[in-house]
Amino acid sequence: MRILQIIQQKQYRGAEIFACQLSSHLMNLGNEVEIVSIYDGDALLPFKNEIPTLSNQDSNRYLDLQGWKKLADIIEGFKPDIIQANAADTLKYAVFSKLIYRWKAPIVYRNASTTSYYIKNHFSKFINSFLLFNVDRVISVSHASKRDLNKVFPFTKNKTVVVPIGIDPIKTAETAIAFSPRRSNIIHVGSFTREKNHKGLLSIFKKLTTLNQNYFLHLIGEGPLRNVMEEEVHQLDLIDSVKFYEGVRNPLPYISAADILVLPSNIEGLPAVLLEAMFCKTPVVAYNVGGISEIVSSQTGSLIEKDDEDNFVNAVLKTLGNPDFEQIETAHKMVIKDYMNKEIAKKFVEVYEAVAPQPPKGE
Hints:
The protein contains 12 helices and 13 strands.
């Protein structure tokens, strides 16, 4: 099959990284894959071919005739069997380009988060309803994401399937990271956006440091709220206990070096970073939001109800003080068995073939 993947931006964010990893596995399965990015960026994403850019700014995403035409031209040249829109503005570009320039390829939309979180008014509900009506299939990253989408937009029930995210393990020894063994190293990986709740994370960390000064927080990620969070670190007098990282292409060595990974997000679809931590045998503590409960349970980690900072702190203390090695091993085996991208890619192909059946071989 010929598959065109549309990503939001050339950035180190879960949706973009997964789309690139997925595309590489799809190519290994014998498919032809191209990726196009709506907005430019500095990230060196894990895809061997060039990734062209449609537009340089998001201010005109509702009326970017030039960008929609550029997408149509790419489709005309590549002639894909399937277009996959990967979250955010990619859906707008795919649908508006198709309606205006009349190309025929079916659109698959990858729903990687919690839709209701973004539907703030009648206009956003109307426009998203219109966009989703014009896609052929929705692939939700978790059963929780599917339920949420179907509740907000009931007409999507018959066009939504669940295919989870997976991971691509990279040997951590190749770029080994060593954190100080004299302190407990806590890590968080995620874009600096309101969804990831860095402010709540710093509040939790502040509570930990009042109990023990020997904790250190490593923050890996980029995003619009990074400067705000750097200021928050100063305000909380945590400057000597927090380190920010950016431009990290492969977080696994950092995750592997940490004593624990924490994820107190406001919303999630099914975060790959938890799977990566489990693969690295780094214990996890996370809020029970979105599809997190589909991978984190008492058998694989610590699941805390949203905004319960005190119980989150207690779970971190318990995990650091007495790691549950049976729990860590169970989580690792689960990831190996069910969440490797090499196998996840085959499930995507099944969805593509159902939407755009290919002629029998020989025809």
